[in-house]
């Protein structure tokens, strides 16, 4: 499943540079994750780098974009080919 950033985001700028897919952008008020680009770092890293970088734990799974590991891997292939 893609990830999302909660409204408790403090805009610390830690997550955006860590995303290998450039899925994180500054929104109107807080950072946002584009679910079409988010692979939870599958294909790049063992764990989502934005989750690891977030100092307040506001990056969480997005229940509106549930995806299997295979779907995330297919998305990685599509984004990198």
From TrEMBL:
Domain 4Fe-4S ferredoxin-type: 1-29, 31-64
Record-given protein name: YfhL family 4Fe-4S dicluster ferredoxin
InterPro entries: 4Fe4S_Fe-S-bd, 4Fe4S_Fe_S_CS, YfhL-like
SUPFAM superfamilies given in the database record: 4Fe-4S ferredoxins
UniProt entry keywords in alphabetical sequence: Iron, Iron-sulfur, Metal-binding
């Amino acid at each position: 499943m893609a990830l999302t950033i909660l409204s408790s985001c403090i805009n610390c700028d830690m997550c955006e540079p860590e995303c290998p897919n450039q899925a994180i952008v500054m929104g109107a008020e807080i950072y946002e994750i584009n679910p079409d680009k988010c692979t939870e770092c599958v294909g790049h890293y063992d764990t989502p780098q934005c989750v690891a970088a977030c100092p307040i734990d506001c990056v969480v799974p997005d229940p509106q974009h549930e995806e299997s590991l295979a779907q995330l891997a297919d998305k990685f292939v599509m984004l990198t080919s």
